[in-house]
Write a structure and sequence with these properties.
seven-stranded mixed beta sheet; alpha/beta; 201 residues; 7 strands; 4 helices
């Protein structure tokens, strides 16, 4: 009877292949475990900043009003930027009854295109007063300019329908903030010079 020689070359090669196969399987299992642990711990994966973020259109930003001034301490110029006669005079009368000090009442000296209900133009010294005035008109936009005086301009726009209900002088709701005024309107400071115009105030 013949016996197989376990030391035959083909037997040694088979054992070598088995050991290599087992080593590869062990390495793959270890690598897979490391990858799974990295994903679980957040070490691996797509950075959060690379993920797309949907951003919808924002028509205007709102700013919180600082502590308000009493109307008697605020001087307001009322300007009409529409073609509707008597709008500035009528609005000025209502503001006066609410306690505001009225300055000029005229057509808009800046002759800028005003959108929405109104613009409130002001300089650095009139920032607090501007919030109080803007609270008088729903949708009014704050428009800073370069004036040095604390006087505030209320410029009535085409969508103006009237003043908002009277608000307490100690608080003012958030209003829409706009960018710096155009160069034309930025030159308006304090009480402007009277210009002849054919459009009634």
């Amino acid at each position: 009877m013949a016996y197989l020689d376990e030391s035959a070359p083909w037997q040694r090669r088979r054992r070598r292949r088995q050991r290599i196969t087992m080593a590869v399987i062990v390495v793959l299992v270890i690598v897979a475990g490391l990858i799974a642990a990295g994903l679980y711990l957040g070490v691996l994966g797509v950075p959060a900043k690379s993920l797309p973020v949907a951003v919808g259109p924002v028509p205007c930003s709102t700013v919180s009003a600082p502590p308000a001034l009493a109307p008697r301490r605020i001087k307001v110029n009322v300007y009409n930027a529409t073609g509707r006669a008597g709008l500035a005079a009528n609005t000025a009368g209502q503001l006066r009854r609410r306690g505001f000090v009225i300055g000029s009442v005229a057509n808009d000296p800046g002759r800028a295109k005003v959108v929405g209900t109104a613009e409130v133009r002001y300089g650095a010294r009139g920032a607090v007063a501007a919030h109080v005035v803007a609270a008088q008109v729903v949708g009014a936009r704050l428009v800073p300019d370069r004036r040095l005086a604390p006087t505030v301009d209320l410029v009535i726009g085409p969508q103006f329908t009237g003043l908002a209900p009277s608000v307490p002088s100690t608080s003012a709701p958030p209003v829409c903030a706009s960018g710096p005024a155009s160069p034309t309107s930025a030159r308006t400071t304090g009480v402007p010079k009277t210009r002849p115009t054919s459009t009634p105030r």
